[in-house]
Write a structure and sequence with these properties.
- Helix 2 (about 15-30) runs antiparallel to helix 9 (about 235-240) and helix 10 runs parallel beside helix 14.
- By secondary structure, the protein is an alpha/beta fold.
- The protein is built from 14 helices and 12 strands.
- It is globular.
- The strands form 3 sheets. The chain has a 7-stranded mixed sheet with strand order 1-7-6-5-4-2-3, with helices on both faces. The protein has a 3-stranded antiparallel sheet with strand order 10-11-12.
- The structure holds pyridoxal-5'-phosphate (PLP).
- Pyridoxal-5'-phosphate binds near residues 90 and 94.
Length: about 375
């Protein structure tokens, strides 16, 4: 039986092997193993690519989020206990960043159609203590609407974008005050280990996070903050730069795959994701369908029996994780919980060809359709 892997990183990285070896070799021979020109080159590229003033390479996407929040704290724009609104259906890292920075995560349901944070849900959760919102560009789709924009302006809220899944999506880093990017290997531009970055147009914030990521020092042996060690590894920076020229192409291929799925899937039990009006505002980190009537596990098993691997992003939302039982169990998030029970991510990377996708759609269309 033919197998359709969900994601095989060796296949995804295979076209870049020569360039990756050369990049790693360059760093090995350089004698410079922390910071330096490789990290600077990546930061310069990010600025020009995202059309943004400042970029700071850091160790992970989680650290990027946390450092942005810590940065606003040292600048006096956030303080201990302030509330940060975040969608309940996000990856746990968004919420961890908020609680690790000593702030209070206020979880809200996403919009049912976009599966993203909406102005309507922000409005319902606003209190005097709300100081920031964290739109998560989940599955690669930019999370932003008119009402969010209005509320943010009216209430003077800081906007920290979790863009871990959305590098290359039109507008990331510019809808908000600062954005966190992840180069985790499975992301749209993956390193071969951990990596992350902060992009922002705010010069003061960029300076603060750069210092915070390096023991809080603004120059050698001079510590202005009680900082962290969250620097980007130059080997990872070099490896990312060996692949980055293809990012738009790779995102284009993801769009093509998403469109094909949405065109070919024709099964009343399977709901395909909404296509945004502006196609450049979605980079399809995941293609996530919804399965009706508690048939999700049966659907996944049916696909697996036919060779198709799937995944769930995410089966257990943060407020249902053991580490948050005490702190966040008061939140009632019916949409988040319904989504967690119904969503299935289908293969969408370069290791799934367009003809594979057509075959997967044939299999999907046979699910529970007797007589076919
Ligand atoms: C991957 C991811 C993160 C964390 O990035 P890491 O580099 O793995 O730390 C944060 N938020 C979201 C939505 C993610 O998908």
């Amino acid at each position: 039986m033919k197998r359709y892997p969900f994601l095989d990183l060796a296949t995804v990285n295979a076209p870049y092997m020569d360039a990756l070896r050369e990049a790693a070799d360059r760093v090995l021979c350089s004698g410079r193993y922390i910071g330096g020109s490789e990290v600077e080159a990546l930061e310069r590229w990010l600025c020009s690519y995202a059309g943004i003033g400042y970029a700071v390479g850091v160790s992970t996407g989680l650290d990027a989020l946390r450092l942005i929040l810590e940065g606003y704290k040292v600048l006096g724009r956030l303080s201990e206990g302030d509330e940060v609104i975040v969608p309940g259906n996000t990856y746990v890292a968004s919420v961890l960043a908020i609680s690790q920075a000593g702030l209070r995560p206020v979880l809200v349901d996403p919009d049912e159609t976009t599966m993203n944070l909406s102005g309507a849900s922000i409005r319902n959760a606003l209190t005097e203590k709300t100081k920031a919102v964290m739109p998560v560009h989940l599955y690669g789709r930019v999370a932003w609407d008119e009402e969010t924009s209005t509320l943010v302006r009216e209430h003077g809220l800081i906007v920290v974008e979790d863009a871990a899944q959305a590098i290359g999506a039109e507008g990331i880093g510019r809808v908000g005050d600062a954005a966190a990017i992840s180069f985790y290997p499975t992301k749209n531009l993956g390193a071969l280990g951990d990596g992350g970055a902060i992009v922002t147009d705010d010069c003061e914030l960029a300076k603060a996070v750069r210092a915070l990521a390096n023991y809080g020092s603004d120059r050698r042996y001079h510590n202005i903050y009680k900082g962290f060690n969250c620097r980007l590894d130059p080997i990872q920076a070099a490896l990312i730069m060996a692949k980055n020229h293809d990012l738009d192409l790779a995102n284009g291929r993801r769009r093509e795959r998403a469109k094909l799925y949405s065109t070919l899937i024709d099964n009343a039990l399977i709901r395909t994701p909404e296509m945004p009006a502006d196609e450049l505002s979605h980079v399809w980190h995941q293609y996530v369908v919804r399965v009706a009537d508690a048939l999700r596990d049966e659907f996944r098993q049916f696909l697996l029996d036919n060779g198709v691997e799937t995944d769930i992003h995410y089966a257990v939302p943060p407020h249902r994780q053991p580490c948050y039982y005490n702190e966040l169990s008061e939140f009632r998030l019916p949409t988040t919980e319904r989504l967690a029970d119904e969503i299935v991510s289908l293969p969408i990377s370069d290791c799934t060809s367009l003809s594979d996708i057509a075959e997967i759609c044939d299999i999907i269309n046979r699910f529970r359709q007797s007589g076919l």
